[in-house]
Structures are given as structure tokens and as C-alpha cells.
Design brief:
Elements: H1 3-32, H2 39-66, H3 86-111, H4 116-140
């Protein structure tokens, strides 16, 4: 990759890293704010998402350094809505995941035909993020609903 292309790759990877780190903070916060009968499985699921986001951030950071860049110390947007109903948490999670998925799609579009490594990485992460979005979407549906959740 030439210099400008490399810079774009690093910038996009750093944006992904920042979004994934924001996911760590958000999911950790959400896991602390769950109350009620279903607390234990939901907290476990949220903690798992925080762990997964950290692993994704680390992977993006490794690719930043592979391309000679400096991993960002920033964290993506952290919006505190003060809403902690499980539905609110899931809807916020859905929006965060959509934003992160879009960043992976940006990387994939950029990398296509330029870097097999980045293209394959982006595609792998898109699959993971789309499956995660589907999981959150299904959690937002009422039992028996087959149509995708939409606001």
C-alpha cells in the first residue's frame, strides 16, 4: 500500500478500535445496571459482549501496528441516557453495533483489491457483527414474533 492508502487503513482501524473500546465500557456499564429476575443470564451475556469487544479492539490495534501506525488512546462515543430498562439497554446496544458494523463495512470497501489481509479481516468481523446484531434484534422481539425488530 502507498502512504495515503496506508494512512486511510490506519485511520479506519483506529476508528474501529475506538468503537470497540466504547463497547467494552458500555457493556460493562450495562452489566452493572441490570436488576430483576433475569439478571444473571443477562449480566453474563453483557459481560461476554464486553470481553468480545475488548478482543476486537485488540485485534484492530494489532493491525494498526502491523501497518506502522500508532493505536489510538481514544474511546468512541459514550452516551449515557440514564435509561436502564433491559429494552432500552438492548436498543442502545443495537445502535452501537450498527455503528461499529458500518465501520467494518467502510474498511472492507476500502481494502477490497488493495489488501487481502484487511479485506478478509473486515469480512470476518462483518459476519461476527451481523450475527451479533441479529441476536440483539431477536432479544428485542416479543415471543412468537418473526419479523425483525424495528423502531
Amino acid at each position: 500500500m502507498d502512504g495515503a492508502t496506508n494512512t486511510t487503513a490506519i485511520d479506519t482501524l483506529n476508528r474501529i478500535m475506538e468503537l470497540e473500546l466504547a463497547g467494552v465500557v458500555k457493556y460493562t456499564h450495562y452489566s452493572l445496571m441490570v436488576y430483576g429476575y433475569n439478571r444473571i443470564p443477562i449480566v453474563s451475556w453483557l459481560k461476554g459482549n464486553a470481553d468480545e469487544s475488548l478482543a476486537h479492539a485488540h485485534k484492530a490495534g494489532e493491525l494498526v501496528t502491523l501497518h506502522g501506525g500508532h493505536p489510538s488512546l481514544k474511546i468512541g462515543p459514550l452516551l449515557e441516557t440514564q435509561k436502564h430498562d433491559i429494552g432500552d439497554i438492548l436498543r442502545e446496544s443495537l445502535e452501537h453495533e450498527k455503528t461499529t458494523l458500518a465501520a467494518y463495512y467502510d474498511l472492507q470497501k476500502f481494502a477490497e483489491g488493495k489488501s487481502v489481509l484487511l479485506d478478509e479481516y473486515a469480512r470476518e468481523m462483518i459476519v461476527i457483527e451481523e450475527l451479533h446484531l441479529d441476536e440483539v434484534n431477536k432479544m428485542l422481539r416479543r415471543p412468537g414474533e418473526t419479523q425483525a425488530f424495528s423502531e
